[in-house]
Amino acid sequence: MTTEKNRRAPSRRPSAKASGFSSRSEGRSPGPRGTDSRSSDGRRPESSSDRPRDTGRGEPARGTRRPPARDGQAAPVRDRPYVMAAARIEQVRSVLGEVLQWEYPADAVLSHWFRAHPKLGSRDRGEVADAVFDVLRNLRRYRQFAEIGMGPAARRLAILGLSNVFSKDVLNQGLDEAEQGWLEHVLRINVAALSRAVRASLPDWLDERLSQLDDADALVDALNSTAPLDIRVNPLKVERDAMLATLRTGPALRFDPEPTPYSPWGIRLQGRPPVNRWPMFENGEIEVQDEGSQILAALVGVKRGEMVIDYCAGAGGKTLLLGALMRSTGRLYAFDVSAARLARAKPRFARSGLSNIVPVVIADDNDQRVKRLRGKAHRVLVDAPCSGLGTLRRNPDLKWRQHPESLQELVDLQARILRQASRCVAPGGRLVYATCSVLPEENERQVEAFLAENPEFTLLDASKIVQDRCENLTLEGPWLAMRPDRHGTDGFFAAVLERAKPAALKSSTEGGSQAQDGSS
Ligand SMILES: C[S@@+](CC[C@H](N)C(=O)[O-])C[C@H]1O[C@@H](n2cnc3c(N)ncnc32)[C@H](O)[C@@H]1O
After folding, report:
1. Is 490 marked as binding a ligand?
2. Where is the composition biased (Low complexity) (predicted)?
């Protein structure tokens, strides 16, 4: 009963001073964040893959770390007397009581709960968070297991979550005899014999939809796993190789920094490093961003001096990379309807050293500033609000928070945003539509419907365009479709659409349909 987080620390660590790390870098999890991530408005909360963690998942769990192996043999799990097992079960049960109401995203609930329990240290928080997320990942199966036997189901869920965090002996110290027997029994159940929906803990509607995708089993398994943490360098400030060298000679070495395979700016870290306490984060040299999200920004293909709109900029994950790729020249509008999200982007913009970003809170419909930019932008990115189902590795609660009705609302919203944003694209300019979903109705079908209504746009081959910046990435095209089972990233989708120049439009439509944006 150990987790993949049982990584051994390197035996010798260079001094913090020599590496440029402050001793704080090994410190506690980051502080609170806004609570407007409530997504009962049918909008996906921003992917936490693009945000530093503040959910207590910053340190490996106590009672699970192994001391260094001797003579090539793994050392036994350290089973020190552990008076906290009973308390920890109650803590996890208490958090689950709030999370399972599905009113707020799980990481927001955790942050809130940790603020209300300030005496817990970073390892305590890590254990609680790991157990809660394990329950969310396996909820359907655990609920079935919890029904076997006596006692409150919520406590049994907490015990199951902690069974993947603590060793058996440590956990047993918090269990009575009946609970120990029940746990032994359910952990012996042959999971492989269960239906996929139960085994992988998916609601039926989602299992059905995912089963229609290629290699569905591999995708489902990958979405149900835990993810590493990707960061990226700010190309305006530092080269990736230089940053890798710094990380490898400092305390970050124990998080195994490696270059990401496809993005030229990415660095992958294992475990849950407290990145946002590191000096290179505070001075804007690195940002947290999943490799897939970095690739989407690359796909926009921005150039120096252009006018670019990031139409759904949120907390600025992609805006930051776009701005750096424009070398802080031209003008990059960061639009969003959420003032709170844009407010969270502002400190990131400030750290980055970029001076070309113009954040603008826009109205949901009929915004005058958007109208003024009709037909003017060289590039428009629509990183649309979506189900977020490509990010289940990091946000497993989304499979329980989404349902077919909320999905349909999102599909309608995406179509509306795509239509509005497309009006800003200049003739010959490009519109990039992206989601972090793996569902065709939010992706391919959405783009096909848009193209059918907007003949002045043509679909370009995203797989070829992305190779300009990510040469190792070979995709089928014409879409950009990243998957955790194939690429080790979150699930992302993107399409690149080019707006015809007036002459081309005239000849292709032979005087037929007109551009529908009012700018023609
Ligand atoms: C997927 S998130 C964006 C994430 C962001 N691009 C990043 O990389 O961090 C989608 C965003 O769309 C915004 N949004 C929702 N409706 C919108 C609309 N009608 N116009 C513009 N933005 C909208 C949401 O507030 C949310 O921040």
Report:
1. no
2. 19-34
